[in-house]
Amino acid sequence: MAIVEDITADDAQLEDKSISREDLTRNIEQLTKRLIVPAELVPGFMASRDEDGLSRYRSEALNILYEVKKKVEHPYWEEIEPEIQLRLMKNILRLNGAKDPWSSVEIRSIIQNIIPHLSTFIPLLILPTLKPYFASHPSLSSSSRALTRPVGGTDSSIDLHDVQPFKDPSSWGITNLLSYSVQNLSPVDVEKNIGLILPPTLVLMDDWEPSYRLRGAEILDTWVDKLDEGLMKRMGIDKLLIDSLIHTISLSSNPPLKGLLQITSKVIQKCTETQSQKRTEYYSDIVEKGIIQGWTYAPSGIEGREVLMNINEMLEGMMEVMGTGIVRWLKDIIPNLLQPLQFPPTALVLPHYQSNLRCLLGVMKTLRKTGRIGRWRGQILNILCRLWVQLKERRGLGDEDDENGDKDDIENDVRILIERIFKELSEQVPSVIDDEYQRLFDLSPGMFGDLISSVNAEEISS
Q: Distance between CA atoms of 398 and 228, rounded to whole angstroms?
């Protein structure tokens, strides 16, 4: 058996040596042509997803990529011109998208093993091929400088939605080509080719579909650090990009666009001076349009909870960059964090309660030095005591040894957060220990005893 294996291996080696460069090119082309995603599997507007068809496609694509990986390791592959390599590898690079339904972790893993074998000129060669897929942006001149007034007026961006070649089924994965290109360009190449990079990025960022807006922001995130902020200001694109990002935040998309705030903050910090008026104005716009208005216009019921929890995450992010500056909106923040907590804590709403309480605690700690939280202690204690009572009734009065008590991690975390808020309030407003906390204990030691004891206040009588 060993002899047979050796002979087989030798035959394979001889066959490998005997293959010509033309044969290698033809074989790879035959394989990669089979990677074209069928039009019926490309998600479209109001189109249902064919999970079985996608599963079959991913399985076949995986086998093809294994074959391609073997062939690009052939010595002749390095001799193939970059232009031909791009033609052969374009479908493979189109597959390299983390959120695409036709891709998978296994597929992207193999692609990452193929990429090191590609010519370093491919990223530059990709950019000119993308122009037919993206219309000109009305806010950019032919030299990709920001216009003082969009071509066609303020509503001209709507015209972008009429012709969108990048959404055609034949354009599947086209954004992955753009992403691969800008990720692998040097800062010098990004600056030289900004006229090919900026328009498609901005077209995506201003699309009417939230998923494309996020994709555009993610692509921006890959190249913005490579571009000098001075050049961005001279071209006027700093304001154009930031305004687009803040507008996307203000839409409060459902499902939420994760990571968008971090990208926006990064671009703002790059393009503005620390503690400058401009930076403050941008941050204020985010709070006003993304958080305060987000609370106002969030959908009700189940649909709105994910949006509201994302707003909490944004508020926590803004506290990190603004610090005590958020005190300006305290009269909106505290009521909006407390108001949802007055309803029964069912399993469906507990994650929302957990998010609100965590955010409230963060607000209290951030504003500790301002002394402003004391003014809100009445509302905080009123809502949190009601919630504590409902949690107690849900679990059983004083039933700390209930066998089901520790099974619901979220409910336990909600209890802990209430205790931590009580603790934080007592540290910021010590008078609550002798006044409000003592009265709660006197009212019902069995109900509030463990909550008050968590404050570790010696003044509370037992």
A: 62
